[in-house]
Amino acid sequence: MTAPAPEIAPDVAARWIARWDRQQQGYLPDREERFTALIDAVEAATGRPDPLVLDLGCGPGSLSGRLLDRLPGATVVAIDTDPLLLSLGKAVHAGRRGLRWADLDLRVPGWAARLRLDRQADAAVSTTALHWITGDELRVTYGELATVLRPGGLFLNGDNLTVEDTSPGLARLDRELQRREADRVFAGGRPEDWREWWDAIAEEPSLARLREDREDSAAAHHGSESILLSTHVSALREAGFTETGTLWQRGDNRLLAALRP
């Protein structure tokens, strides 16, 4: 029998989530702008004060929390399989109305049914998460999603998705523009990166067990598997999403949207 995850002090969790947000901002200087555009789209598309929203690959709940800040009547189901990030989020958002956590692997068939939703979701969202999933696994993820999203429901994926396969010259130019912008924004020094954050959290004694659990689980990943826009569009269309397109964009940092017919 697996021992329950150790409880994390809320102040410790808040400190590490704040540090998580800073390192994510290092990759995406306009991260908050993308969050705002995404939540605008959820609010406009669902047209109700109490939408049911799925947060795919939620991590420590950065997007889930912002959704509920804007839409306090919403129900957000935050889905991930990373024991450490989920525990951080649960500690910070303990008792928050409208927020439910689900420890599920989006790559495994049947995850949607295991949510046991009492109605179909109005929207599903994700930010900087699904590129870790391979193209073949994305077909599972999006195929499952189509079974729990209501007709007309909206899917939004905020991520860096490149057109390297179809427009390599433009993709190279885009990378150069991103580099120049980052040099300007972080002229005084870059924040820590993703790997440095994980190396640092490994030194936090109270999180040692959770870090070990993560390394032993399917949550550990070490590369970007599906960064091509075409990979996501193809998998969405195969799952039955007939309308797909980019709602917001800065270079390859985009908000990919799809509507379920």
How is this structure best described in words?
With 261 residues, the protein is of the alpha/beta class. It has one domain: Vaccinia Virus protein VP39 (Rossmann fold). The protein has ten helices and seven strands. It has helices at residues 10-27, 31-46, 62-70, 83-92, 111-114, 135-148, 168-185, 194-201, 208-215, 229-238; strands at residues 52-56, 75-80, 99-103, 121-127, 149-160, 243-250, 253-259. A seven-stranded mixed sheet has the order 3-2-1-4-5-7-6, sandwiched between helices. Helix 3 links the parallel strand 1 and strand 2 (75-80). It starts with 9 loop residues before the first helix and ends with a strand. The relative contact order is 0.18. The model has no long low-confidence stretch (mean pLDDT 92).
Keywords:
alpha/beta, globular, Rossmann fold, 261 residues, single chain
Major sheet characteristics: 7 strands, mixed
Radius of gyration: 18 Å
Find the CATH topology.
Rossmann fold
The first-to-last residue Cα distance is: 43 Å
Mean pLDDT: 92
CATH class designation: Alpha Beta
Order of helices and strands: HHEHEHEHEHEHHHHEE
CATH superfamily: Vaccinia Virus protein VP39
Structural class by helix and strand composition:
alpha/beta
Low-confidence stretches: none
Strand order of the largest sheet: 3-2-1-4-5-7-6
By CATH, the architecture is named: 3-Layer(aba) Sandwich
Question: What is the number of independent domains?
Answer: 1
Instruction: Give a count of the beta strands, DSSP E runs of length 2 or more.
Output: 7
What quaternary form is this?
A: single chain
Q: Which term fits the overall shape?
A: globular
Distinct helical segment count: 10
